[in-house]
Amino acid sequence: MVFNGGGSTGGTDIIAMIVNKYKGISLGRVLLFCDFIIIGSSYFVFGSIEKIVYGLTAMALATFTVDLMINGFKQSVQFMIVSKEFETIANRFNSELNRGVTVMDGTGWYSKQPVKIVMLIAKKNEVRRVMQIVRECDPKAFISQGSVIGTYGEGFEAI
User: Which DSSP letter does residue 139 get?
Assistant: First the structure.
């Protein structure tokens, strides 16, 4: 929560935030690297591999959680929907989800027929509603769903 608010706890996270800002490496990875060096060098103080293993395990869980919390809020879902009912689907996404869509031209290589592809970026909590709308409009639609880390622009995070 501190990191999401742009704050710092005053430890190695300051280094992590600087590296993240200028190099684009995730906070969790930089924290993992810094803390690995600190915990690894503690062998010279304690002389115990067991304490180092416990420290590394706790640190790995903490950095994983930091990345999950920070990137988890930014994750979106991208849908690519191939359907003959593309207009109805696109209109419903626009009106019911208040989401813009992009309709692209494509060719079904197996059938050699022209197709329309509806592309939509939605928030994770909208996935169920997206699937419901597509199922209601065209139960035979082909849907590809992918996870997107970071979506910027209107309706998402500022660029």
Answer: T
Q: Which of 77, 79, 83, 93 is nearest to 139 (CA)?
A: 83
75-82 and 113-123 as β-strands: parallel, antiparallel, unpaired? Answer: antiparallel
pTM over 0.70: no
Whether residues 91 and 60 fall in one domain: no
1: in domain: no
Tokens of 14: 């300051």
Whether 80 and 114 map to the same domain: the answer is yes
- Which residue is listed with tokens 């059938």? 111
Output the tens digit of pLDDT for each of the chain's 159 residues. Answer: 666 666 777 777 788 888 877 877 777 788 888 888 888 888 888 888 888 888 888 888 887 787 777 666 667 899 999 999 999 999 999 999 999 999 999 998 999 999 999 999 998 889 999 999 999 999 999 999 998 877 777 777 777
Phi, psi of 14 (to 5 degrees): -65, -45
CATH number, residue 92 = 3.30.70.120
- Say if residues 43 and 106 touch (Cβ distance below 8 Å): no
Token couple for 50: 């067991």
54 and 92 assigned to the same domain: no
Give the pair of three-digit tokens for residue 156: 């998402």
